Amino acid sequence: MTKFQLVATAAMGLESIVAQEVQDLGYETRVENGKVYFEGDEVAIARCNLWLRVADRVKIVVAEFPAHTFDQLFESTKAIEWEKFLPVDAAFPVSGKSVKSKLFSVPDCQAIVKKAIVERMKFHYKRLGFLDESGATFKIEVSILKDVATLTIDTSGAGLHKRGYRQSQGEAPLKETLAAALVKLSKWTPGRPFVDLFCGSGTIPLEAAMIGQNIAPGYNRDFISEQWNWMRSTIWDEARNEADDLANYDQPLEIIGSDIDHRMVTIAQSNALEAGFADLITFKQMQATDFTTKLTDGVIISNPPYGERIGEKEIIEQVISDLGKVMNQYPTWSVYLLSSMENLEALYGKKATKKRKLFNGFIRTDLYQFWGQRS
Prior knowledge:
Elements: E1 4-9, H1 15-24, E2 29-32, E3 35-40, H2 42-51, E4 57-66, H3 70-78, E5 94-99, H4 106-124, E6 139-145, E7 148-154, H5 176-185, E8 194-196, H6 203-212, H7 233-246, E9 255-259, H8 262-275, E10 281-285, E11 299-302, H9 312-327, E12 334-339, H10 344-348, E13 354-360, E14 363-370
Parallel strand pairs: 5-6, 8-9, 8-11, 9-10, 11-12
Antiparallel strand pairs: 1-3, 1-4, 2-3, 4-7, 6-7, 12-14, 13-14
Helix pairs in contact: 2-7, 3-4, 5-6
């Protein structure tokens, strides 16, 4: 097995959760903005892709070096032993980004990295003409920050938020990775009732069900690195068998999702069917403020509309205000609301136990946490 420097990328504010997930898989971590670094072999690549709920992607860090000039970028890239990663027929598209660096032209940086890898490959594989690039794909990224270039290869392919269950979605869907993060931040356990009063296409309840039954989020999808010749199929088979053994399909769950829009409820039901949770999660059309329950010690996690359209703001403000009054009747329930509304606490009628800054896409939001009383 080869030891790689790996990095799990994460949305801003979620790095600590991703680091904990990586540590739970048995790897030591180092955290930077939006990145969790760790060392691991081919097995680690497979396991992390299958198990990381909150990370965006898993990448191999191939090299890091100063790049003040195009010559420096070319020569340092060419000096890397690309043949250790790329077979002779590898397809290797190069993407790039540059921040606060002398080499600010991203298309030029991409072209230079591509040319340098081609030169290296042609020399190593003794090819005179073009490389045909007809084989497996290795997505390479050149990222230059403050004149330091980092070259990575993406092992995931489609982002890890693509679990494979989402058949359709609403207008402003919550990413599965963020939904999983909300569930993890709530410290919910499968023995407690779980409700999402603004469930949309059902992402939060579906992620809760996967966490509740310890199902690996990547179990039903493919990854780009499965096509690589040095990632043997037995590695993936063993990682999936491990995931299957660790899943607790018999764990009973009390999970409810509701939404005022009957179309969203239908979409959520079809997504739950695709995920294999049709008889585990109850979805129903309902106004959030009609919530009633005889259960105690439950958790509500919701991403209510942010009221950004004209005329919507007043409506959603009233809903939040009414919801606060409703939840006064259920003191043992904990409520977690993800919102960009800065006056949410005033509307809800009480101060949050805790607030956590998170980004929903590019929207800065807060996770308002109203913890219930211990019963």
